[in-house]
Design brief:
The complex is a heterodimer. Chain A has nine helices and two strands, in the order E-H-H-H-H-H-E-H-H-H-H. Chain A is mainly α. Chain A has a two-stranded antiparallel ribbon with strand order 1-2. In chain A, helix 2 crosses helix 4, helix 2 crosses helix 5 and helix 7 packs across helix 8. The radius of gyration of chain A is 19 Å and the shape is globular. Chain A starts with 11 loop residues before the first strand and ends with a helix. Chain B is an all-alpha fold. In chain B, helix 2 packs across helix 7 and helix 5 packs antiparallel against helix 11. Chain B is globular. At the A-B interface, helix 1, helix 2, helix 4, helix 5 and strand 2 of A face helix 1, helix 2, helix 3, helix 4 and helix 5 of B.
Chain lengths: 186, 194
């Protein structure tokens, strides 16, 4: 499972210790399901990763020009619920950064570097990562959620829209992976 | 009794603190699954590593089972949970766009944060991209967003729409997970790249 050959260029290994293997995916899935269940039982809602970005975007737009920000119904929707630091999803995202950091450090997996397929350069990979982020960000805004907020959260409560979203993600994922992005990854 | 925010009526600071704690566990799970690695994530599309499906479906089944069982005990009314309004055109268009971004970028939003936390500069580029995409969407596509919003229907779930109990869907998902778990091992061996 850890045997995918490394092609990136880790410029600086923070620790020389060998990276610990990842956990069994079914075990992690069970634990992740418990976290999702806990979110539902505590806050009455599931998880989400993209909302925080929109909160910050709306806050930045408002800082530049309040009139301009108010003219966008999307910015206005996020501004209505306060600053990013008052948003539930922002704290969830901050927490997930530290949770991943703790897991990565204790498993000796923290490495500064670019991760890429064998046939492209680091520079190309960074450009594609940025472009993919823009595209995924726009997709998540259209769908009102991403893999966390729609797929995981919605599927577990059997929201039919979330199940359709998941099918669409995989349909486009496989099509783009094999028709367009093969050189990037394999 | 559940959700707790309704029965305990705690302050916003407590609510945000709980979000932080849930986030820590969320990010911890993502990293332990190997989802801070783009090559592991895209393995699902090239069929050499199906961890994305294994983790997601197990998580979905676990949470679904938990919600169902807790609601059976009478401590949770499922109607009290927030359900994102169902919007098929938005789910299809957004899902297709998102799926393309996932493969090209190598991450999804949550996993890119795990990537940044473990030092991946491509993860940082992806995070910058999500921010730019979210900003651009609000700036240039708010009219499209208003149009999409018209086709949204609140509070829809399959049990509500079909009248079939959540327990039957849960059994279906468990059966599917079992079948998929059996098939995915064979797929990974066939498409192995090591």
């Amino acid at each position: 499972m850890n045997a995918i050959p490394a092609h990136g260029t880790p410029s600086r290994a923070v620790t020389k210790a060998q990276a610990a293997p990842y956990w069994n995916p079914y075990l992690v899935g069970f634990l992740l399901g418990l976290v999702l269940l806990a979110a539902y039982l505590i806050a009455g809602r599931g998880l989400g990763a993209t909302g925080a970005f929109s909160s910050v975007a709306a806050w930045v737009a408002n800082a530049i020009s309040p009139e301009h920000a108010a003219a966008s119904s999307v910015h206005a929707r996020y501004l209505a619920s306060g600053t990013p630091m008052q948003a539930w999803l922002t704290w969830l995202l901050i927490g997930s950064f530290f949770g991943a950091l703790a897991s990565g450090l204790t498993a000796h997996r923290f490495r500064i570097g670019v991760e890429r397929g064998p046939r492209i350069t680091d520079g190309q990979r960074l450009v594609l990562a940025l472009a993919g982020g823009v595209i995924a960000g726009i997709g998540a805004k259209i769908a009102r959620g991403c893999t966390s907020g729609q797929a995981l959260t919605g599927a577990s409560i059997l929201n039919p829209g979330s199940l359709v979203f998941m099918l669409a993600v995989f349909a486009a994922g496989y099509a783009v992976a094999w028709l367009v992005a093969r050189k990037e990854w394999i | 009794m559940f959700p707790l925010y309704m029965s305990l009526d705690y302050s916003q600071a407590v609510s945000l603190g709980l979000a932080l704690v849930l986030g820590v566990f969320f990010g911890f799970c993502l990293e332990k699954a190997g989802f801070g690695s783009s090559r592991k994530l895209v393995g699902v599309f090239y069929l050499y590593d199906m961890a994305v499906v294994k983790v997601m479906f197990t998580a979905i089944v676990t949470a679904m089972a938990g919600l169902f069982l807790v609601s059976l005990t009478g401590n949770l009314n499922l109607a009290d949970l927030y359900i994102e309004p169902t919007n098929y055109p938005a789910a299809i268009i957004g899902g297709l766009v998102f799926g393309a971004g996932f493969v090209i970028g190598g991450y999804c939003p949550g996993t890119s944060v795990a990537a940044v936390a473990t030092g991946k500069t491509d993860g940082l580029a992806f995070v910058a991209g999500i921010f730019a995409g979210s900003y651009a969407y609000a700036e240039f596509l708010s009219g499209f967003d208003d149009w999409l919003a018209q086709s949204a229907h609140p509070d829809q779930t399959l049990p509500v729409l079909t009248g079939v109990s959540m327990g039957w869907y849960l059994l279906l998902f468990i059966a599917f997970l079992g079948l998929a778990a059996w098939g995915m091992g064979a797929v990974e061996r066939r498409f192995s790249r090591t």
